[in-house]
Design brief:
The chain is an alpha/beta fold and about 700 residues long. It is built from 23 helices and 29 strands.
Length: about 700
């Protein structure tokens, strides 16, 4: 039966020996659960919930076939039957919930963060500090056998298939590319020799697992590396993979060391689906496309236009495990949309933490954060409709509590309403829309547009009927933060403004601006002030042009023959403003930015001519400009305005007033701890408190 809204997305995919119930794959994503005590039990709950949510096929995070291939020391691997037993928990949970699951076999090669790393050649990766040891002929054969053995164990563990990771710059990709394969034996030199390693793995895995087992080959469709594969070479490898026995080809985009954004929020939706389309007709295998496909509408469009046969979404299933079930029920507005922030998923992994999700703190914490019906319904006042207050109100209402949510602003969202104004952060609109929709459906009472007083909190709260009025049983203070004031002579000048004023009134600022504070807020303000025209995050062609990606694929690696880290279209998206980004600390500006996105922000601002200075002393501001001391030298920056992004202070007046009256309350979010604006921590804290009350 054809689905009314999303007919292509919900069309089954017949693989001959098995059928996927729809065209959505949950793409591979390391969670950090793979290596911790009790992690497999937690992964079983995590994957089981997403199978129950209706995704057609799940792919696990990368599992190494041997010690050398592990991401780091003590990384997850599948090399023997004792390790295999743990995987049975995952496959049973998925199958019990009507799903299918494949295990990704990942050998990191020169990307491994340990001393036992190996590669086709001893070429150190720029994102690593270990140099790999070059494999000899005998060791190459052993690596192939380890892949085959791992696949066999995966089949015994109950997996429906394996994905062999040949993309993103990992070991197999390192053999394929002449950038990393400098060999002159039968494993190097010509392209036919360089792809031998990949083909041997897939053909021997097929021999090992038989015909009725899914083999996905993750093909590096677009290296985004100077000297990377050409389109003709990619097509040749895809055709050879079909002959070798692959069931599905999944197209990967960009190496991890490539200086092109591929999955961050500033990347337009489905920005790289056009690349997958270039394989259509070249092979008869189903083709999977990925990267920044985060709504069923976008997935349907990609499939309907024939750009791919299947869409892969990893982080969207972190954000909402019921993504597919809500789409099937024609409820796309109820989907908690992934915003591509990377803050709780990829950044956590690079910090050695367990993965989660900014908009869904239950992700990977399904056994710890339980949102269950409350034993006794309570009447709860929540003051502050920013991220912390919204998260608490939503989760507490789901448990059955009656919630009244107060805020002095006329709309919910708090400082999230500033975030959506920053080019590249437009996806926060989805988070705000989700909260509005869910609060309405849950019957949360909103009291907006006026300052909240003690009388509001201490008076009777509205109940279901006119005569049913009860006092609040619990009070939650989520009043957020206020910008910290910088104090120096002239800081009270009206031309010295807060980041809130600057974002809300950016058009009124002059042609020369100094920003005090080079944390996340300072970078956001600099991005906004140096931007003009339409945000490239909303325009796929403009984005590709901006980052030098060759949509015609005439050049190797898919890049125009220039520095791939150089932003190309500053004349279009650049600035007529001169902006200085300053900080007191001696550390590198932006040192605290996210691991996976900080380099993008720095690159953009550098190309827009933003001058960044650390170790700055602010002396005064007057009609000449901002007087500073930098590197021991006194300077005057002849600026029209100064924007203060020097941190925040908790807004706790109401909490203190309650404490003085010996009335207990819960304080969460920025009101609890001021720092960099941190929606991730605020939403998580709100959810965990709601689970406890």
């Amino acid at each position: 039966m054809e689905h009314a809204l999303f007919p292509h997305l919900f069309k089954p995919l017949d693989l001959g020996f098995t059928t996927l119930k729809n065209r959505a794959v949950m793409g591979s994503m390391h969670t950090g659960l793979e290596e911790i005590p009790g992690g497999f039990e937690r992964m079983a709950a995590y994957f089981g919930q997403r199978a129950k949510g209706g995704v057609g096929l799940i792919i696990t995070g990368g599992i190494a076939p041997n010690r050398e291939g592990c991401v780091a020391d003590h990384g997850a691997m599948l090399t023997n039957e004792s390790e295999m037993i743990h995987h049975g928990m995952i496959t049973r949970a998925v199958h019990d919930n009507g799903g299918k699951i494949a295990m990704q076999i990942l050998h990191t090669g020169r990307y491994a963060f340990h001393e036992h790393l190996v590669a086709p050649s001893a070429v150190m990766a720029p994102i690593n500090f270990f140099t790999p040891r070059e494999l000899n002929e005998e060791e190459i054969e052993k690596q192939i056998q380890d892949f085959v053995h791992c696949a066999g164990l995966a089949r015994q563990a109950g997996y429906d298939g394996v994905e062999i990771m040949g993309s993103e710059g990992y070991l197999i990709n390192q053999f394929v590319s002449k950038v990393t394969n400098l060999r002159n034996d039968r494993w190097g030199g010509s392209y036919e020799n360089r792809i031998r390693f990949a083909l041997e793995i897939v053909s021997r895995v097929r021999q090992q697992v038989g015909k009725k087992f899914i083999i996905i080959y993750r093909l590096s469709m677009l290296d985004l590396m100077p000297g990377g594969s050409t389109l003709d070479e990619v097509i040749l490898l895809a055709r050879e993979m079909e002959k070798a026995g692959a069931t599905i080809i999944s197209t990967g985009i960009g190496w991890h060391e490539a200086r092109i954004p591929t999955i961050a929020g500033m990347v337009p939706r489905a920005a790289f689906a056009w690349v997958t389309e270039k394989l259509k007709g070249a092979v008869s295998l189903p083709l999977v496309t990925s990267n920044r496909i985060n709504t069923p509408e976008i997935a349907e469009k990609v499939l309907a236009e024939g750009q791919a046969d299947v869409v892969s979404m990893a982080r969207p299933f972190l954000a909402d495990p019921d993504f597919m079930e809500k789409a099937r029920q024609n409820r796309p507005r109820d989907i908690n949309v992934c915003i591509g922030c990377n803050q709780a998923c990829l950044d956590h992994i690079f910090q050695g933490k367990v993965c989660s999700c900014l908009v869904n703190p239950r992700a990977c914490h399904e056994t710890e954060l339980l949102i269950e019906p409350a034993a006794a319904m309570k009447n709860i006042a929540v003051v502050g409709a920013g991220p912390a207050g919204l998260s608490f109100a939503l989760h507490a209402a789901r448990r059955g509590h009656q919630i009244t949510l107060f805020d002095r602003q006329p709309d919910i969202g708090g400082l999230l309403n500033l975030a959506v104004m920053i080019p590249g952060k437009e996806e926060f609109h989805e988070t705000l829309a989700y909260f509005r929709r869910q609060l309405e459906k849950l019957g949360v009472c909103l009291v907006l547009g006026r300052k909240v007083t003690l009388e509001d909190i201490l008076s009777h709260a509205p109940g279901e009927g006119d005569n049913d009025q009860r006092k609040f049983d619990e009070i939650v203070i989520a009043t957020g933060v206020v910008p910290r004031q910088a104090v120096f002579p002239g800081s009270d000048d009206p031309r010295v403004v807060s980041y809130i004023q600057a974002i809300q009134n950016s058009d009124t600022l002059g042609a020369r601006v100094a920003i005090i504070g080079a944390g996340g807020i300072g970078f956001d303000v600099a991005t906004l002030l140096t931007h003009r025209g339409k945000s490239t995050s909303l325009d796929g062609d403009a984005f590709l042009k901006e980052w030098g990606v060759d949509r015609t694929y005439r050049f190797p690696g898919g890049l125009f023959p220039v520095d791939p880290g150089r932003v190309q279209s500053c004349g279009e998206t650049g600035s007529s403003r001169t902006v200085y980004l300053l900080q007191r600390k001696e550390t590198k500006p932006g040192a605290g930015l996210g691991k996976t996105t900080g380099w993008i922000h720095r690159s953009v601002l550098k190309q827009r001519g933003v001058e960044m200075m650390a170790g700055v002393v602010y002396e005064k501001f007057d009609d000449r400009g901002l007087h500073i001391v930098h590197d021991g030298n006194k300077k005057v920056l002849a600026v029209d305005h100064v924007v203060i992004c020097a941190g925040q202070e908790s807004r706790v007046e109401l909490a203190h007033a309650l404490e003085e009256m010996s009335i207990s309350c819960h304080i969460i979010g920025g009101a609890h701890k001021a720092g960099e604006l941190d929606a991730k921590a605020a939403i998580s804290q709100g959810a965990f408190l709601a689970a406890e009350i």
